[in-house]
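Action item from last meeting closed. Structure (489 res):
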């Protein structure tokens, strides 16, 4: 048996640990997150498809659907597959969720209503406090926060992070207006990206026109451009399925109040190519929305929804989008007479792919502070699981801070370790870290647990009567966390 005065283990204990580690490693290998990579499937223009693969690389993407407008000629290509129950190659007609790209549509509606209906963009939006104007909302200068405040939105965002679900569920037009009315303004006059602000704008424009926003969008932008595949509902068939960089499938985002900001809008690269081509020629309804009007920083200006960025080779006007499982980019270079659409079905950004296809330099995006925190957490969770079970496995004489081992303690530490591994699997940044870390940590956790369980028959239920209640409470906490994780998956 275990020698309390040394860290030596018997051959039987070591064999049990080895068997447990091997079985756990096999199980972990079978269920480990599988970060997406571009498959071999290719459709459309082969030369463009090759250029897309070169610009994007393979890591972090499952599929990319691309359209390139060059001197009025549109070429399209698809690489990778849709995912979902029956994956199929993507092409120019495959619907993707396009995230915030429709913020540019909303800006175009404002510009069109200003040109055709006499709406003054500098006038205050009816019903909003502090005389916030239409122009301030579309240029992200209203001072409204990025998202509504309050515990409800925070809880939805946290839950969506764990479940890869929809953080905008249940947010209708009245919720958006109420959130804007209760929000404090900060940095008014400075460009500060706001989903809430553009949602308020689109809903206000719809109210002024006497139409629901989807109908307003259809009449003002989609129908004039012949964009028949762009829709504000989830396509019934043929759509791409969204994934995180760790390989988990993500739910579509839906929230009727945030439709003008891009929540719940789907399109295809072929449809968006019509938009890019019309913006290049200035023939799109509300094309003046792309005119830069306000300065964000030394390289970026904003118009009505559209951003314009200076590069070493000129200027690119663009808007991007990102949801829980999709990324999108629409941009055009008027001087180069080129436009591009890039749609991806993972949450890895595609801006640099679009810029490269336009002929502009674009470095790989640097990890954000949030991404670095996620990477650190991914390292700590599996390491914590292994350490949690190895401490009791190697415990020798009891001390004041390390009491004698008992069965309740073993159950508690084992449950904690399993939950840590589960959380690592669920929310880990496995697109940036090798999944071998998860497999090794699972094997180490199983080995440590096995070493402890070899002593099970010799352990009391609870060595100290006063430890029963805290141990039982710990078990209940672990059960509650486990239930939450189960619901999240």
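Sequence:
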């Amino acid at each position: 048996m275990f020698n309390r005065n040394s860290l030596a283990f018997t051959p039987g204990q070591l064999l049990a640990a080895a068997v447990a580690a091997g079985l756990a490693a096999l199980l972990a290998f079978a269920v480990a997150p599988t970060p997406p990579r571009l498959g071999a499937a290719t459709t459309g223009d082969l030369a463009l498809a090759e250029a897309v693969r070169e610009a994007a690389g393979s890591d972090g993407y499952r599929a990319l659907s691309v359209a390139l407008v060059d001197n009025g000629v549109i070429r399209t290509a698809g690489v990778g597959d849709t995912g979902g129950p029956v994956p199929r190659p993507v092409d120019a007609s495959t619907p993707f969720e396009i995230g915030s790209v429709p913020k540019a549509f909303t800006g175009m509606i404002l510009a069109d209503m200003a040109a055709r209906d006499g709406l003054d963009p500098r006038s205050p939006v009816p019903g909003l406090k502090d005389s916030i104007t239409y122009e301030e909302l579309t240029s992200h200068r209203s001072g409204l926060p990025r998202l509504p405040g309050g515990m409800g939105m925070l809880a939805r965002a946290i839950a969506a992070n764990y479940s890869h679900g929809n953080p905008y569920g249940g947010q209708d037009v009245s919720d958006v207006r109420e959130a804007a009315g209760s929000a404090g303004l900060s940095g008014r006059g400075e460009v500060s990206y706001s989903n809430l602000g553009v949602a308020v704008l689109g809903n206000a424009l719809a109210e002024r026109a006497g139409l629901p926003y989807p109908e307003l969008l259809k009449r003002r932008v989609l129908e004039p451009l012949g964009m028949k595949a762009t829709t504000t509902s989830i396509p019934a068939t043929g759509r791409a399925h969204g994934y995180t960089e760790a390989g988990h499938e993500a739910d579509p985002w839906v929230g009727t109040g945030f439709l003008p900001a891009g929540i719940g809008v789907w399109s295809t690269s072929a449809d968006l190519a019509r938009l890019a081509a019309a913006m290049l020629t200035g023939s799109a309804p509300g094309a003046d929305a792309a005119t830069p009007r306000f300065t964000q920083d030394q390289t970026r200006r904003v118009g009505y929804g559209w951003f314009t960025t200076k590069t070493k080779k000129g200027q690119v006007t663009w808007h991007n989008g990102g949801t829980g499982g999709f990324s999108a980019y629409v941009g055009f270079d008027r001087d180069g007479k080129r436009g591009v659409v890039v749609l991806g079905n993972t949450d890895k950004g595609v801006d640099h792919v679009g810029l490269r296809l336009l002929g502009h330099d674009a470095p790989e995006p640097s990890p954000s502070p949030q991404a670095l925190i996620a990477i650190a957490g991914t390292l700590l969770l599996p390491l914590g699981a292994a350490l949690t079970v190895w401490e009791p496995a190697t415990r020798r004489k009891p001390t004041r801070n390390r009491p004698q081992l008992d069965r309740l303690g073993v159950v508690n530490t084992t449950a904690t370790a399993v939950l840590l591994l589960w959380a690592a699997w669920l929310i880990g940044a496995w697109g940036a870290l090798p999944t071998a870390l998860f497999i090794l940590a699972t094997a180490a956790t199983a080995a440590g647990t096995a070493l402890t369980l070899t002593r099970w028959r010799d352990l009391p239920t609870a060595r100290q009567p006063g430890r029963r209640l805290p141990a039982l409470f710990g078990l209940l906490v672990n059960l509650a966390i486990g239930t939450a994780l189960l619901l999240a998956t």
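Note appended to the action item: The CA atoms of residues 99 and 321 lie 4 Å apart.
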